[in-house]
Design goal:
157 residues, alpha/beta, Ribosomal Protein L15, Chain: K, domain 2, 3-stranded parallel sheet, 6 strands, ribosomal protein, rRNA-binding, ribonucleoprotein
Length: 157
């Protein structure tokens, strides 16, 4: 093998499409731009333009806002936690927190904390340490003999 003989495997690279090189090439004449008019020219941005009429995004009133300080919780259902306990990914005897849920693959990342919702059935006796939990979820956990501790960061909000 010589340095000047090195090349990619067959089919590893695709040659670029040469546009506008005669009608025999299949992408000549209009060069893949359709036919004539403003959109066939370069430097055109007419999205939302309605021929001089007031565009819909200006006719309709603006409403609401995005609160940049809002906490974004990862939502986990009780059924999902029970499935992880059944699959022996979560240890029901230890306290379950965001790190344990991440290690078990129940959540991908903790964001601003974990919030537990009451979807699904819970049979295992678990003790949770999470940022938030709905009232029905807390009731289901306590009915199964478990406990829920809400973390201080979530309680302050």
């Amino acid at each position: 093998m010589k340095l000047n003989e090195i090349k990619d495997n067959e089919g590893a690279t695709k040659s670029r499409k040469r546009v506008g090189r005669g009608i025999g090439s299949g992408s000549g004449k209009t060069g893949g731009r359709g036919v004539k008019g403003q959109k066939a020219r370069s430097g055109v941005s007419i999205n939302g333009f309605e021929g001089g009429q007031m565009p819909i995004y200006r006719r309709l009133p603006k409403r609401g806002f995005n609160n940049i300080f809002a906490s974004e919780f990862v939502v986990v259902s009780l059924g999902r936690i029970q499935a992880a306990v059944d699959a022996k990914k979560l240890d029901a005897s230890k306290t379950i927190d965001a790190a344990a849920l991440k290690a078990a693959g129940v959540i991908r990342r903790a964001k601003d904390g974990v919030r537990v919702l009451a979807d699904g059935e819970l049979k295992a006796k678990i003790s949770l340490e999470v940022a938030g939990a709905s009232k029905p979820a807390v009731e289901k956990i306590e009915k199964a003999g478990g406990s829920v501790k809400l973390l201080a960061a979530a309680a302050a909000e």
